[in-house]
Amino acid sequence: MSGVDVSWLRMERPANPMAITGVMTFRKRLDLERVRRTLREQFLAFGRFKQRPVEEAGLHYWETDPKFDLERHLHRVALPGAGGKRELQELVSDLASTPLDPAHPMWQFYVIERYRGSGSALVSRIHHCYADGIALMRVLLALTGGEANPPARKAHAGGATGWLPWLEPLSGASVKLLQWTSAFWQGYFELLLRPGKALELAQSGAGFFVEAAKLLAMSPEPATRLRGEPGLSKRAAWTEGIALAQVKAVAKKLSCSVNDVLLACAAGALRAYLVAHRDPVEGLEIRVVVPVNLRASDGDDDPLGNQFGLVFLELPLGMENPLERLYAVHQRMLALRHSPQPMLLLGLLNFAGIAPRAVHEQLLQTLGAHATAVMTNVPGPQRRLRFAGVDIDEQIFWVPQSGNIGMGASLLSYAGHVQFGLITDAGMVPDPARIVERFPMEFSKLKQAASGRKDRS
Question: Percentage helix, strand, coil, to 5, in the chain?
């Protein structure tokens, strides 16, 4: 196992299972036998999914499960009651709260029957140590009739890859820069043990420790109801789709990117939730951890695995005016465009995966103190896909949270629409539906502001 994959495996906690949870919905019924055949022929074509992570004498490796049985990983569930969206969200919440069995390959699929009457849903849970979002998008293409391992450049051109699309995938030569000297890592972890020195280095501009020192010198997150000590129960909710063409039109009118518009709407929805609870929001800013694709543009030897970095983005929840909030997000995204943070944090995760557990725990604690949520933005396929012979109506997924982070947000475009989803800790935010329902309202505000403007491009 790579150091980064091990790092994600080590992050597993009872309060934060490290599984990527995905939901697909269908207007027609899925045939269980055809689902079984699709998984056997397409999903298991990726040999990793017959393997389990094993640790011996401090070393981690992939081992083929000698007792592998597809039936252990495929389940059929009928929704109770009306079988509507609320019942599906409750089921997804329960599944997201459940850890995967490390004695076998750590993934599960659930075929949900009677969704909205004659339809179906498919819930997938795959441990993060197997793959990141870019790799799982490749798996999705395989399951829906696409290539089993499409090159990253081809997938990017087709609009089916990229976390934060403003960052082009790095070349193989750039990725090799992650292999920095042992002196750097020794120095960085000295900073972890001596955090008081981080601010001094950040102010003095001392060589290649500067960026690491800046990370350690970040102030802790403000105390809000969005943060706390995670418990064992999760809650999931998502919006209906917003037309991507409308989002693009608003972005063009306001001279921002689609990504800026979506992030500003998410910030507005979080602000509205706090205001509804009469919590103080004046001047409030929270950080979200945003994944950034660092895969080589010419393809990878391993189609799975984790090859992404992270950036810390500050969301201006204290700004009431939606346009001011949008342009603040826009400027901060521009500042992060060429940031070395993604490569630095990918390197840190890789090193932490091969370092003693105490070092990994220290890194996890340090990073977790500086963020309120994990937020992914994935431009998915814009053509409608089919799974097991049935059209996919909508899809959304969430990456897990680590440490004391109790909220994960997902912005996903598919088949001409964008959806916003949240998964939260039930003890912190027991009603994420109250947040996601504000997202289209926030978009309407920006749409109205853009309607009276000429193109500024």
Answer: 40, 25, 40
